[in-house]
Structure formats: C-alpha cells, structure tokens
Write a structure and sequence with these properties.
With about 200 residues, this protein is of the alpha/beta class. Strands 3-2-1-4-5-7-6-8 form an 8-stranded mixed sheet. The two termini are about 30 Å apart.
Length: about 200
Amino acid sequence: NHVLDIGGGTGLLSLMIAQKHNTKISSIEIEAECYQQLQENIQHSPYAEKVKAVHADILDFSTDLTIDAIVSNPPFYEQQLKSDKQNINLARHDESLLLEDLFKKSNALLNSTGSFFVLLPFYRNEECMLIATKNGFFPNRICAVKQSPYHKPFRMMYWFEKKQQSCIEESLNISNSNGSYAEDFSELLKDYYLYL
C-alpha cells in the first residue's frame, strides 16, 4: 500500500515504481536543488497522484502510515575524494546518511512483513551484510551487477526482509561480450529505457 523512497533524488526510482504498481509512494530528499527537481519531475509525470515529494532528512522523518516497502539508492562514497560543491557531496557521500543509520531507520519504519531494497557499490557488500544482520534484516535476493561477463561486479542489488530465509544469489550483465545490451538487462529495463 505504501512505498518509501529514501534519497529520492530526481525521482527516478519512485516514478519507475509508480509506472508498474498501484501504490502510494513517498519520495524523501534532503538536498534542496534535488528536491525541487524531484517535485517538477513528479508534477510533469502521469503519476503525480501516486508520488509525493518530501523535503526532509530521513533521520528526522516519522509517519503514521504503515510502510510496506522501502527502496534506497543511498550516498555511495565513504572516505573518498569530495567535490568542492556541498550539494554534490550531500548526494554522493555517506556523511549525510551512514549505512548503519539507513538500516536502523528502515527497520523502525518498515512493517514486520515489509521489504527493503538497496543498491550499493560492490566493494561495500561485506559491510552491508554485517550491518543488515545487526539491524534485523535477512537477504531474500542478492544480485551482483557487472558491465559484461568479463568484468567483476561493480554494483549490488539487495532485497531484505525481517524474516530469516534462504537467499537467491544471482548476477546481471549489462552488456554481452560483443558490447550489445545483454538479453536479461534489456528485458528488465525495456519499459524504462528508450533505446534497448
């Protein structure tokens, strides 16, 4: 019934969910310029009744709504070279939202049978799994994303729940060995990408 998008950015994930599911979505964004773009993108989409932009820090956010699913593409970078622009750092570096805090807050907001979906760089996989377990989340499905069959994974997609279960582990190649889009990737994103 209700999905929460933490770190909504310009609304990409929220609008993709709205396109496929009959659900209400709250898209939370802390950075002011991103929030303005988020609002505009929602208003100019066919899904304005389904998606609500919220300008807030997720750590201060509270709601009486029952949250059935949380999605997050959080700030990736930890202790890495920063931009001289504060708004870019806020969006890309995790000082504004530590992974530990994201999992803790998601546990508090999500109902007992809900799902938590996260996208992270591959190098944070071990850290993510430790933090998830510490905060009462168990993987239902994990997907390692690779540029091609010859590359190492560079992103990880996680589906967590609050119940312990067997986990499906898989991988997704963006491109084939000849450089064309892989069939699985095309099938997954054909409804969102114009040129697949």
